[in-house]
Design a protein that fits this description.
- This protein is an alpha/beta fold.
- Helices cover 34% and strands 25% of the residues.
- Helix 2 links the parallel strand 3 (51-54) and strand 4 (73-76).
- The longest helix is centred in the first third of the chain and has 20 residues, at 14-33.
- It is globular and about 50 Å long.
- The chain starts with a strand and ends with a helix.
Length: 116
Amino acid sequence: MSLLHLSLPSLSTYTATNALQNYLVRHLLSLKASSRALPPSLILTMELLPTFTFGRRQQISPQDLASLSSMASVIKSQRGGLTTYHGPGQLVGYPILDLKRSSIVPPLTTMKRFLG
């Protein structure tokens, strides 16, 4: 299985990289829905500007929001996790692949080589 690696070249905002990831996922799903050929699996990597994300089931108090906002951007994400910090020096990777098309093991092994 081939895996493309798209590394964003500079510090990025969470909002921009999340929009790119969502666009790529929507494109993959539209290709699948129309039974067209799918692109190779992709890993999107980047370093983000200081950002705290929190999941859709988590509530943040106004005091915590004010405290976090004084240090970084604070964004409610669509994932289910708790508060997570993303920032310079931290490599973030988003795999975009069709799990029904292949086993998850080869892409994970390849991603591990990319992320080293």
